[in-house]
Automatic annotation (TrEMBL):
It is found in: Cell membrane. The chain crosses the membrane at residues 35-52, 58-76, 113-130, 142-162. This is Sulfatase N-terminal domain-containing protein. The keyword Cell membrane applies. GO terms for cellular component: plasma membrane.
Length: 482
């Protein structure tokens, strides 16, 4: 009776944790089918931990601890980004030890991380010693059990991805609806179901038609700059940025840009602009578009530019491995990558390479080009977290952000001045709003700012046209096509 009792404790305890978390905010679903699927998620989680220990009470406690951690992390994420925890977040875990600051955590060598982890390992080791194993005493039977249970779980996951089980799962999770599904079925079941649905989804359709510029020919110089966490600072109560006045009076097109996320997930906006794909067309892959195709997008702007005879250059002053950017950008069609190692000696403003150094490098790439050139750049200076110690004498997060955004404005003014006299197009846009205490989810309906400048024969009168990230991508593709 030990195993059923431990399983019952895991199911009841996990249900209580999620009921407490949702009380008054997101009440749990009470229909029998919804409760059954929620409990099945807890049972699978318990079975997963049981595979490692074969100790029922340790597996039950591990399930409870896992559900509690998921609930806490999901609540924190909801407060900062406006979205519950999702399966694709686990693909980012391998980056946390290498870039802890970017994920608002600490290195494992920090005592505040190392001591709790060490204590946890000691507790688990003691538990292994105190609780007897549930494995059969007969060695051959025990071996069959050790191999059989993991194979059973893998087989179950495989079955849920094919045939009638897959249809059953698709009927309950027809499309992504994170908040509603977490309320109905619970966080563990939703994470598992979304992962299974994502793995079996067919490839998304090609992006829609280009948005024509009605121009006579393609632009020989196209520069697109994705600005980290960029919004008009006056929306945050900051001072007016001279760049915004330049945009209003000089940009051919400008306005608010609706992006796929708030406060994070740069890759969602990046993918939308480079491919022109609507997030809804990606199905469950919308949460991390690079997980599905890894940049293998035949209709991307960079591939179109390559086919049209352009030199394609990606510029980003940060690690090659972050988001697997080097590999992804090569697949997108960028023949040349300029990354952190190419900025050796460039000034850092806080922890990252300054935006003005990035602007200078972009202009150098344009100047050196002997063919039409398409440059796609991603800034880094104003990446979070904004916390004490980042800038000397400035500890307030908003003040730090405004300090950096002033540099972003000057860098873009430098680009505008440097492209004058050429037949060129410059597009700048914010990837998402900053995750600041004064800029919580719901701010501006996930909008940032964008602007498209024309130079030489491509100069045109200013007009405000609010847009979305995929629409901007399809607009930019027409610059290459002409």
């Amino acid at each position: 009776m030990t195993i059923p009792a431990a399983l019952a404790m895991a199911l009841i305890g996990s249900l209580a944790i999620e009921a407490w978390d949702g009380a008054g905010r997101r009440p749990i679903g009470r229909r029998p089918a919804e409760l059954a699927l929620r409990l099945a998620g807890y049972a699978l989680l318990t079975a997963f931990w049981f595979c490692f220990s074969w100790r029922p009470w340790l597996a039950a406690f591990s399930c409870l601890l896992t559900v509690a951690i998921l609930v806490v992390v999901s609540r924190l994420k909801q407060a900062v980004i406006g979205e519950p925890l999702v399966f694709s977040d686990f693909a980012l875990l391998r980056q946390v030890p290498r870039h802890p600051d970017l994920y608002y955590t600490r290195p494992f060598t920090d005592p505040r991380m190392a001591i709790p982890l060490g204590v946890s390992l000691v507790v688990v080791a003691l538990w292994y010693w105190i609780e007897p194993t549930a494995l059969p005493e007969e060695p051959s039977v025990a071996l069959v059990a050790l191999i059989g249970l993991p194979c059973l779980l893998v087989g179950l996951a495989s079955e849920l991805g094919t045939g009638r089980p897959a249809q059953w799962l698709a009927a309950r999770f027809p499309r992504p609806d994170l908040d509603a599904d977490c309320a109905r079925y619970g966080l563990p079941a939703t994470i598992i179901a979304y992962a299974l649905r994502w793995r079996r989804e067919p490839p998304p359709p090609e992006a829609g038609d280009d948005i024509s510029l009605c121009q006579s020919g393609p632009a020989p110089v196209v520069v697109v700059v994705q600005l980290e966490s960029f919004v008009d600072p006056t929306r945050l109560g900051g001072p007016a940025l001279p760049l915004m006045e330049t945009i209003r009076t000089r940009a051919s097109r400008h306005g608010r840009l609706t992006v796929p996320a708030h406060g994070a997930y740069t890759m969602r906006t990046e993918h939308a602009v480079l491919t022109g794909r609507e997030p809804d067309s990606l199905g469950f892959g919308r949460y991390d578009p690079y997980l599905s195709n890894g940049g293998d997008e035949p209709a991307s702007i960079a591939r179109r530019a390559l086919r049209a005879g352009y030199a394609t250059v990606f510029v980003h002053p940060f690690h090659r491995d972050f988001f697997h950017r080097a590999e992804v950008m090569r697949r997108f069609g960028f023949a040349r990558l300029v990354m952190e190692e190419d900025f050796a000696g460039a000034p850092r403003i806080g922890p990252y390479i300054g935006d003005e150094a990035l602007a200078a490098r972009i202009l150098a790439e344009v100047e050196a080009a002997t063919t039409p050139v398409f440059v796609f750049a991603v800034t880094m200076e104003n990446h979070g977290p904004w916390k004490p110690g980042r800038l000397d004498g400035i500890d307030d997060p908003l003040a730090q952000y405004l300090h950096h955004v002033a540099h972003t404005g000057r860098a873009m003014e430098t680009l505008i001045a440097g492209l004058k006299g050429r037949d060129a197009i410059l597009c700048v846009y914010g990837d998402h709003a900053p995750s600041l205490p004064t800029c919580r989810p719901g701010f501006g309906d996930t909008t940032t700012e964008y602007a498209v400048f024309g130079f030489g024969t491509f100069r045109d009168g200013p007009q405000r046209v609010d847009s979305t990230a995929p629409e901007l991508g399809r607009f930019l593709r027409s610059l290459i096509k002409g």
